[in-house]
Write a structure and sequence with these properties.
This protein has 264 residues and is mainly alpha-helical. A 3-stranded antiparallel beta sheet has the order 1-2-3. The longest helix is centred in the N-terminal third of the chain and has 28 residues. The chain starts with a helix and ends in an 8-residue tail after the last strand.
């Protein structure tokens, strides 16, 4: 069960890292306005700034819809009311919501459409000159997108191929039987009653505690409510960190402290 939790955690972190890679790569290759004076910092062109803001918003939408497809706690986002709420919060536009809702894919697969939006936005940005770079740049960007698809696909594969819950329930029954029978077994062997009580307490605490921990590891996104509302991976934190990373590179490179004229 710990192996499943660790794999899902690694995939989530890799997914977060590759999304950050997209923002960093596009921010570095976005076209900039260069002043005639080499001492004036260069800034994004209005077109490149607009494209980067759109990319960052799509990254947030993609990440949110991805976890909504895996987790029961965020699944209401995929409902009609949840999609309307995304529009009200400015995360989606009414046109984007309509396109996602009308797409001939299951609601849990809408994040695939947003990933293709990101790819197409990059390709059209290169064609219009918003993003600079050659063939190698395009190949690297596409490779990052393929890794992103592989990471969220692997999360779904791990959840579908985990240990059957029927086995976990059988182990739960066995643990309960052992804990219930221990006091009778201890007293029947002539063990002192206070030692029997202490032994029952210790066995219950350790065996039941370890089994509850194993069940939470087996359900990393708390879809079976083993964590009682506390998911071991803390999905809200992962989403918040990715949201922050979606604008980190764009904002940090808003001004370039030197001009390319100094390099001539």
């Amino acid at each position: 069960s710990y192996g499943l939790w660790r794999k899902c955690y690694d995939y989530s972190r890799r997914l977060q890292g590759r999304l950050n890679d997209l923002g960093m790569t596009l921010a570095a290759h976005a076209t900039r306005m260069t002043s005639s004076s080499p001492d004036v910092p260069s800034t994004y062109t209005p077109q490149s700034r607009q494209a980067l803001e759109l990319v960052s918003r799509y990254v947030r939408v993609f990440n949110l819809l991805t976890y909504a497809s895996f987790t029961r706690s965020h699944r209401p986002i995929l409902t009609p009311r949840g999609m309307r709420r995304l529009v009200e919060r400015g995360i989606l536009t009414p046109k984007e919501r309509e396109i996602l809702t009308n797409a001939e894919v299951p609601a849990t697969q809408r994040h695939n459409a947003v990933l293709v939006w990101l790819i197409r936005l990059f390709l059209e940005g290169r064609q219009t000159g918003v993003f600079e770079g050659g063939t190698g740049f395009e190949q690297q960007f596409m490779e990052k997108c393929h890794v992103i698809r592989a990471q969220y696909g692997a999360i779904g594969d791990e959840l579908q191929g985990r240990m059957p819950l029927a086995y976990a329930h059988i182990v739960q029954v066995l643990v309960d039987v052992v804990l219930w029978m221990y006091p009778f077994m201890a007293l029947s062997t002539g063990m002192a009653w206070h030692i029997s009580i202490m032994g029952t307490f210790l066995l219950t605490m350790f065996y039941q505690g370890l089994f509850d921990l194993a069940k939470q590891f087996l359900d990393p996104y708390d879809n079976e409510n083993y964590g009682k509302g506390d998911d071991p991976l803390v999905i809200d934190t992962l989403i918040a960190e990715t949201n922050a990373g979606s604008v980190r590179w764009m904002n940090s490179f808003q001004q370039q402290p030197w001009s390319k004229q100094l390099l001539k």
